[in-house]
Amino acid sequence: MALFRTALTELAGLNVTGVVHNYDVDAVPDDLSRAQLPALLVLPVDVEEDVLFRQSGGGFEAVAFADGARTVVYTATHLLLVAPVSAGAGLRSHLPLLIDLIDDYFAALGDDVTLGGTLLEPVRVRVEPGVFTHGERPYHGCAFRHTWVMAV
Predict the structure, then answer these.
(1) Nearby residues of 116 by Cβ (< 8 Å), 6 or more positions away
(2) pLDDT reported for residue 1
């Protein structure tokens, strides 16, 4: 059973009001046009070299009891890209939309905190608004850093 893959696909299916496209790992475009924004990209890898608080999955973590459940901790990034960084329109012009999309994101995630039952515990998410490079361009956006506990 491919639980990690299933959880990533469930994440890609998250219906966030205001998001034009939501890309699963096998459909992430190399570049985005303005017509594709705002977009959410499911990325099971780090998206920036200099993330503020680097965190990785805990790997296999067995509980202290011999007959206890075996779990694995995964981290994944759901990257929200709102608009390309440009000289004509700064962060201030995109900030209201970004804040609204962050609120809408958590409203949608609140409807399914275990991603279709693939997670043993409700998802934990760290929110990192900022500028993120995708392809060759920087974008205003937000990285939602997910931590998932799943059964092995």
Answers:
(1) 6, 7, 10
(2) 55
